[in-house]
Amino acid sequence: MSRAIQTCVVGLFTLHSVVERNPKADGGKVKQRFGMSPKIYPSLEDALKTPEIELVIVATPNDTHFEFAKIALEAGKHGEHDFGLSNGRFKSDH
Q1: Which residues does residue 39 pair with via DSSP β-bridges, in sequence order?
Q2: Which of 18, 34, 36, 55 is buried most deeply by CB count within 10 Å?
Q3: What percent of the chain has pLDDT over 70?
């Protein structure tokens, strides 16, 4: 989890959920690093079905930002990402 997420979460939001794309991981690093025990989802689509989730923070490799931000916005969620939406101008313009 990036420093951007830690800065956004502390004192402003409650970390509700984490999407863990690695099926062998249990999201335990979040608890170890930040002392939080959020709900772990296997996919972004599963997490977005949860009405309590209002804001999605995308902290994945840069080439996935556009895809995940678009999915979150189309689901009616607010979005934040730690770097650019794409590696090139084309995706960000569409």
Answers
A1: 17
A2: 18
A3: 64
